[in-house]
Amino acid sequence: AEPAEFEVSEEWKELGEDVSAYWVEVKVFKAQVYNLTVTYDGKALPGVYELFVMPGSMASASFPDASLFDHIVAGQPFSFTIQGTDAAGNLVYNDTTANRFDLQLVGSIEVGNTTKTYKPATSVEHIGGGVYRMTFTSAWSGVFEVTIQVLGIEGASSTDVYRTFTINVLPATCAGETNGQKPYRCADGVTCV
Question: With a threshold of 0.85, does the pTM exceed it?
Answer without folding.
Answer: no
